[in-house]
Write a structure and sequence with these properties.
The complex is a heterodimer of chains A (222) and B (392). Chain A has 222 residues and is of the alpha/beta class. Chain A is built from 10 helices and 6 strands; from the N terminus they run βαβαβαβαβαβααααα. Chain A has 2 domains: 131 residues, Rossmann fold; 72 residues, Winged helix-like DNA-binding domain superfamily/Winged helix DNA-binding domain (Arc Repressor Mutant, subunit A, Orthogonal Bundle), CATH 1.10.10. Chain B has 3 domains: 170 residues, no CATH class; 79 residues; 123 residues, Heat Shock Protein 90, CATH 3.30.565. Chain B has a 5-stranded mixed β-sheet. Chains A and B meet through α1 and α6 of A and α8, α9, α10, α11 and β1 of B.
């Protein structure tokens, strides 16, 4: 049985009925409540204002324009409710979406950008939902990979292992999670991170996961 | 209606021609050209006699001839329709001017002469009653002979007008007419393919892909519900893995047909996406104004994709670069790498396919790849409705 997580109130906006119903079902299995599941941007605005959820999960592309209605609606909601956590789902990686979300991200409010197909890995998806709701930043591994693939001179100074750690950091993983993933000790991860921050000329920071992520991503975008 | 030419009308019998408008139009055609030339020469004669300096006379004379020549070509083009089928499109400027010069300086006289001689003889006979020296029998026989000879004049006039107009038409007809038609129909075909690709992409997206995501989700949930380590959990887990593989394959398939990021976000986003997936680090310098026409975007994306794939497979490069700019209505895409070079388009290679695809968009491909490198692949794709970016 799936582990029941901290129950959350989540509003879903997804225009594909099959996926929308699947998401409601999935979130229910992990103990969350979905007071409203809608199919377009205006519907999302109305539902979120009515239900004041902990988290909004929105498809980027929805009716009526099928461009970035979901993203626009989510950002309008965050403007009115700064602590609202938002998880955006997209069919494909669009870096400008991810960057836009990261740039305007408010302190304390969780933000996530995932490819739709990640929903299939139900446990990882549920984990991402919980982390975003708790205020973390979760970025799809594919986005991180593309950001890292761009040539940046300082990154060439990193060892392959440090790059791996950086990629996992950028996904919003904790030291413990990175250690588990790479099958090393947490102390080794901490050592790698110190090395990365040093090589990238980032000053030692408070051990705050998402600030660390933001610093790294801001650096990658620069 | 089958257009009738003067010879076919003439062949219908002695009085046939006069019942149609053809001979009259032939006369109109020849007289308009001949009189135009005559007016020019009368004007020139007047100018030579004018009480002004020699230099002024020469300059004015040349200006007058130049003006007449410039006017004669377009005038000829319009007059043609009196005798032969008109031209579908205006001919190019230099051939029109050249033909105008020949028409005014030489052929115009011949036109006039043919009309005057052909009509002059019967006309003179018709007018014999008004000649004071004419004998009485002549005042009767002359008009009769003139009336009989007048229809005969239709033959030389018609034949000359037709020959003259046919030559004019052959000279003035645009040479590239058929070639242009082919290019245009190829462009229509490319557009049709483009539309079809987008439709397939949309259908796969809204249908199969959504279902597969939902399926993987269901199978994922089912795995969780089953006792860990059981036979059923193992089977469902494998099914889950297969469904995820199918999803990944479908995503690649859609990307090959027509990537959604290109449809929705345009060329810069799509190139960023494909460069991000390249195993060789790629610098990007893509600066195009807004959205380009779909066929142009699609061709440019294909160039970038194929260029990057060749780079990864053959070049051994350490880094690459993609640049795209619109300048003077042409989108230029450059793909460079610092690899081994020596790329050559041979039969069956990706480069030939690439060149074909660019040619279908009316563009061209240039390649510089000396042994030892570096390699530069350039595509130039005409992009007529594109706005060139303002200089900033």
């Amino acid at each position: 049985m799936p582990s029941v997580q901290q129950p959350l109130r989540i509003v879903i906006a997804e225009d594909a009925v099959l996926l929308r119903e699947g998401l409601v079902h999935l979130l229910g299995r992990f103990g969350h409540r979905v007071p409203a599941a809608v199919g377009d941007g205006p519907g999302l605005l109305a539902a979120a204002r009515e239900h004041r959820p902990d988290l909004v999960i929105a498809d980027v592309r929805m009716p009526p324009g099928f461009t970035d209605e979901g993203l626009r609606a989510a950002r309008r909601l965050q403007a009115g409710q700064p602590d609202l956590a938002v998880l955006v789902l997209s069919q494909y990686v669009e870096q400008t979406f991810a960057e836009e979300l990261l740039e305007d991200r408010r302190a304390g409010a969780g933000m996530g950008y995932l490819l739709k197909e990640r929903i299939g890995d139900v446990e990882e998806f549920a984990d991402a939902v919980a982390r975003v709701a708790a205020g973390a930043t979760v970025v799809d591994p594919e986005v991180v990979r593309q950001l890292l693939a761009r040539r940046r001179d300082p990154l060439t100074r990193l060892t392959p292992r440090e790059r791996e750690v950086l990629a996992l950091m950028a996904e919003g993983r904790s030291n413990a999670a990175i250690a588990r993933r790479l099958v090393v000790t947490e102390a080794a991860v901490a050592k790698h991170i110190a090395g990365i921050l040093l090589k990238l000329d980032l000053p030692p920071d408070a051990p705050d996961d998402h600030r660390r992520v933001l610093a790294v991503l801001a650096y990658l975008r620069a | 209606m089958i257009p009738r030419t003067v010879p076919t009308v003439l062949a219908r019998g002695p009085l046939g021609p006069l019942r149609t408008g053809r001979p009259w139009r032939a006369v109109g055609y020849l007289l308009s050209g001949g009189l135009f030339a005559a007016i020019v020469y009368v004007g020139l004669g007047g100018l030579l006699a004018a009480p002004i300096g020699l230099v002024s006379r020469v300059v004015c004379g040349l200006l007058m001839v130049a003006f007449a020549v410039a006017l004669a070509g377009p005038f000829e083009n319009r007059r043609l329709a009196l005798v032969v089928p008109g031209l579908p499109r205006p001919p190019d400027t230099w051939r029109t001017v050249g033909y105008g010069a020949v028409s005014v300086l030489a052929v115009g006289w011949a036109d006039l002469a043919v009309v005057l001689v052909s009509l002059g003889i019967p006309g003179g006979l018709l007018l014999t009653p008004f000649q004071p020296a004419a004998a009485p029998w002549q005042t009767v026989a002359g008009p009769v002979a003139g009336a009989l000879l007048l229809p005969v004049a239709a033959w030389p006039i018609g034949a000359w007008a037709t020959a003259r107009a046919t030559v004019a038409r052959a000279v003035l007809a645009p040479r590239d007419h058929e070639l242009r038609e082919v290019v245009r129909s190829r462009a229509r075909l490319v557009d049709a393919f483009e539309t079809e690709r987008r439709r397939i992409e949309r259908d796969l997206h809204d249908g199969a892909q959504q279902r597969l995501v939902a399926l993987t989700m269901k199978l994922g949930l089912a795995t969780l519900a089953l006792p860990p380590g059981s036979e059923a959990a193992k089977e469902v887990g494998e099914a889950h893995g297969l469904a995820k593989e199918a999803l990944a394959e479908l995503r690649e398939l859609i990307r090959g047909v027509h990537p959604q990021v290109l449809t929705e976000r345009g060329l810069p986003a799509a190139v960023r996406d494909i460069a991000g997936r390249s195993p060789i680090p790629v610098d990007l310098d893509v600066d195009v104004p807004g959205r380009l026409p779909p066929a142009v975007e699609s061709t440019a994306y294909f160039v970038a994709a194929e260029g990057l794939s060749n780079m990864a497979k053959h070049s051994g490069a350490g880094r690459g670069r993609i640049a795209a700019r619109v300048h003077d209505g042409v989108l230029r895409v450059d793909i460079e790498d610092d690899g081994a070079g020596g790329a050559a388009p041979g039969p069956g290679t990706g480069l030939v396919g690439l060149a074909d695809r660019i040619a279908a968009a009316d563009g061209r491909m240039l390649l510089s790849s000396p042994p030892g490198g570096p390699t530069l692949l350039r595509a130039e794709i005409p992009c007529r409705p594109c706005n060139s970016p303002s200089v900033s």
